[in-house]
Amino acid sequence: MTLAATAPAADFPATTAAPHRQFLTGLGLLLGVTLAPLIAFNQTPSATLYNQLMAFAGLGLLVAGLAWGRALRAGWRNDGVSLSLLLMTAVALAAPFTHGLPWSMSLTSIAMLLGALLAVQTGRAVVANQRDQVLTLFCVALVGAGVLSVVVSLIQMFFPSLADGNVIARSGLVGRAVGNMRQPNHLASLLMWACVASVWLAQGGWLARRLGGALRGTVALHMLLFLFVFCVLLSASRTGMIGVVMLALWGAVDARLAPRVRIALGSTLVMFALGWGILEAYTALSHHAFGAQSRVSEEGAGSPSRIAIVKNAIGLLQRYPLTGSGWGDFNFAWTMTPFPDRPVAFFDHTHNLELQLLVEMGLPLGLLTLALLAAGLWTGFARAVRGSAATRCAAMLVAMIGLHSQFEYPLWYAYFLLPAALAYGLCMAGEDAGEPASTTGQRRPWLAALGVVVAAAVPLVVIDYLRIVHIYAPPTGAASLDDRIAAGQRSPLFALQADYAQATVQPPGTVALEAARRTGHHLIDTRLLMAWAKSLNAVGETDKARYLVQRLREFRNTASEEWLNECEEVAQLGAAAKPFQCEAPSREYGFRELR
């Protein structure tokens, strides 16, 4: 395909390949890319589980469709990203043996990593003469998700009474849209992806063909970009704002994009300024909160809490440079390590991809993993730059989520990880060394069967999860709480949520303590810390209990104030005996001593 900026034919590439019309491919993209980030319905305790399961269902159907539809080449293809995913899978598999990570956490990590590996290898295996068509379907799905998220964002911002919580999520942040994923940064990431996808639909000629002319396609591109950029403003995501700058830079440096597309990309900065002005005027007239304005004026370019968690993570890495905290145990190690300057929120991630891998895997394994990732990304981007607009657009999808991964952790969610892995595979797709462009794909029944198995496993996971849902929201005629907790603890994937219930509901003692130690690998909060300390005291490990109380005080959480204020009341009464939480521990404990 010729993509010189001066050649009009670049916008309407011709192909001699038969179009890919496998129904499962389209259905997989609809479910896994369009609908996965749009599911508002959720059941306690997880707000995004159903979104992530939908992403897996979509991946399975997509793989089945491509494999059965003869769109893939045979064989395994080595690259740094695939090797890094295999290495992380091995580390996650070993974690229950190396540092006692519960199997449910290990299996969840393995599923995510192998899902990403499947997406990478599937994307890479797409035959050269089908790649542009597959990318177009992928981008149509992304733009669909973006347009529907625009509707959700406008309702959340301007018509909040219409948000019912099941079809359209309610925003819990004043003056900000959060999308149906209920996280403004996730909304911004999705909208940035939709911007990149719109560019390919314009550059590849899809918009012009569907709308009946290049002018209409160009107008549609500008409209889509404006809507997406405007809703990034509604999200008040600073990473999203940086993404807008990245779009403009792309238009400035990629001379092989069509001139009209480059102009549209450069106009995103004007769109941003125009949107800012519109929202300022609206808030002045309606006295409605404008989240982006207040965030930038109050916090500037960086979040104090994120800066603090990065500093704490670096401090943790300095303490344990060789082994790190252990895979999946950052939150546990961070919570149990003294940090007087810690942010008050309970973080389970460093908000930086590279730092997260280093602090959990240690420097030797972490640096090896990052080196493999860097090598794979460098190769992919180099091939994309040398290739067509299709490969460059796929690479931009990866670059955009990579940018956001420097300040957030979107890749810990399947609805970002799996599409990002597929995009990486597509930017590497095409002719391998010595393979002609006319190579046709093969029917791969075993891979198609694997895709069907992945999709079919999703309902089974939902059934397993309902054991946990029934603990927190028992249906009519439900068993006793103890029986529901026991049933939840038999779950292979979600037992830790049942352990949390047992640790915080049972009277302090041995049973509650063991449950606290297990669920503490997942996420520790104020309620769990208090229950954990009480159970340690009940079994005679009072000094460790006091150490946990010391950590609890560092979070300065209002939920613990009443319990901690008992110390002041006892002091005022002049009582000789003090509650255990009123005394300091005799020494500092390493987090491994508290597992």
Walk me through the structure.
The protein is an all-alpha fold. It starts with 22 loop residues before the first helix and ends in a 22-residue tail after the last helix. The chain has helices at 23-35, 49-68, 80-98, 103-125, 128-158, 184-203, 206-211, 214-235, 238-253, 259-266, 268-286, 291-299, 304-319, 330-335, 353-386, 389-404, 414-427, 445-472, 481-489, 495-505, 510-519, 526-538, 542-555, 561-564, 566-573. Mean pLDDT is 91; it is low at 1-17. It has a domain at 490-594. The relative contact order is 0.12.
What class do helices, strands and sheet pairing give? mainly alpha
- Number of H/I helices: 25
Mean pLDDT: 91
> How much strand content do the residues show?
under 5%
Number of E strands: 0
Biggest sheet overview: none
- How far the N terminus sits from the C terminus, by CA atoms, comes to 58 Å
Task: Name the shape in a single word.
Answer: globular
The ordered string of helix (H) and strand (E) elements is: HHHHHHHHHHHHHHHHHHHHHHHHH
Rg from alpha-carbon coordinates: 26 Å
Estimated helix fraction: 55-70%
- Unreliable spans are 1-17
List the helices and strands and how they pair.
Blueprint: H1 23-35, H2 49-68, H3 80-98, H4 103-125, H5 128-158, H6 184-203, H7 206-211, H8 214-235, H9 238-253, H10 259-266, H11 268-286, H12 291-299, H13 304-319, H14 330-335, H15 353-386, H16 389-404, H17 414-427, H18 445-472, H19 481-489, H20 495-505, H21 510-519, H22 526-538, H23 542-555, H24 561-564, H25 566-573
